[in-house]
Fold this protein.
Amino acid sequence: MAVLLGMVLCLVASAAVVGVSHGQAVASWRIPPAVLLAIFSSTSSVLFVSALDSAIAVRFWRSASRGTPLPELHYIWERGRGFGLVRAVRSGSRARTVAILAGAACVSEFLTSPLLQRATYQVVRDTVTADTLAMGIVPRIPDGWFGDRDETGAVYEYRNGLAQLREWSRREPIITSGSRSACEDGICDGSLWGAGFTHDCWTTEEMLDLSSNKTDGSTVFSVTGVVKENVTNSAFFHLKTKYLSKVDSNCMGTIKAETCYLTSATVEYPVTVQNATVSLRTDKLRAMRVRNPYSSPGDSPKAPKGSPAGPFGGLRDLIYSVLFDNATKLYDADSNMSKVQGPGMTETIFYIPSSANPDPSPPKCRLKFASPVSYALEVMHEFMFRFAIAAAANDSPAEEQTFSVTKTERTLVFQVDPGFLAASVVALTAGIVLVGALMWNWWLLGRPVTLSPLETPAALGMPVLVARPHATLPEILKETQGVCPQAIGAVHFVEYNEKGSVAPEIREM
């Protein structure tokens, strides 16, 4: 009973290990669950063997006391191992019961360990926690940081910003600056305030005939930007884009003009930080908040030549060095086709090929472009973000901002398969119940029993074992020499045939 209790405790411990490990990080376990399960499984196997041996002994002596024939007792002792299962089933009901129960218990015990191993496995899961970072970023870019103005309002003596232009062109990561700006062992998402701009856009339309050369030179795609002043003498950046949005079956095209007014402001940038790099979340720019709009004196069109340039001077140079385009329509009479010619390459990014153009326009005027305004605004936001971080890095001491983030870590965790866990519990429980069934009524024997080769002859009344229970094997052989002279140095095997007759055989040791 103590052995069965030990098997129950192993079952409970194994199920507890699997259950507790669910969802926990693999690195948090100094001893892996697989090792613990192997220990409990091995312990349960040792206890099972001991319990099964005790159960067979109980069945043997209970059957012997109830008048079971010797051949059937033999097969009860053998418990159907190996090829003896068929003979045990045929020998009698008691041997058949023992063979079936013992075989089923062994199968259950065998299945328990692999089922437990399959009950837990490892998966990669995102673990989200709250954290804070401190990063260097300026709330506004000071006049003169980019350089000084020339007579057209462009920046010359470009002291800063060229590095950001090169890094953006090569898609290099933005290196964070600050005392605690790195997000190690994970990805941090948050938002921080920095120098940028807010914008207000609207759209107008006009028609253009593409079927002849009368409209040659008309703009069909453009991206331009200039700095202007409003009625309150505050500077703003005027971003204007045009694109041929559709053409009907009569070669009449619709030109959309999207105009945006940009105002300098401190804005909330959605960012992602990984290790020591930070990137702008352009997919969340539409939801960015605005704080403290302002106008820099260096952006005013009236500012004299040589004065410090404002942040819009840097954006103006960005437009003309990266985004500027002014593609026009050209009708080729020889090929009877309308074509596009322009100084830039931006129109090729937004050109919609004929295979993806559902408009009903004829082949000779099948031209169409997508809107470039969202892309242009994203690029300008990213440049201002790069400029704000670079300006903070050049400050001494650097301006730091502490902001909250959600940290996502890719963690290797344990996952539980409930089906395999339930199957392993059922298998081990079945083994315990089957062994317990074989042990049933053990208390009726009145004392612990075994199948020792010394206990069995004594129980059957062998005189020498009854008279001298503490004798040694040589002493017993000497005393029995007169009865069986060949017994000295030999083992006396007794085999029973199916009818119960005895067939003695002497085999040399």
Notes: The first strand starts at residue 120 and ends at 136. The radius of gyration is 45 Å. Residues 33-65 form the longest helix (33 residues).
